[in-house]
Please model this.
Amino acid sequence: MKCARCSGLMVKDHLLDMQESYVPMWMSGLRCVACGNIEDPLIHHHRMVQHTRKNRRNTARFERAPLRPAVAA
Model:
């Protein structure tokens, strides 16, 4: 798999989240060997949601009809 930031090699890694809860939480994710970018299922989900919202906002902007017709001066 390739890294989204630098196109480097992504390897499977075991991640420990100690900051978000009282109990340490283990999860597996992907880490880039070159730049250190980490991607786990939660990060991937949030990026996809953000990308979808951005696309919806951009398409809605172009599909809007003008509020009133143009008047000749």
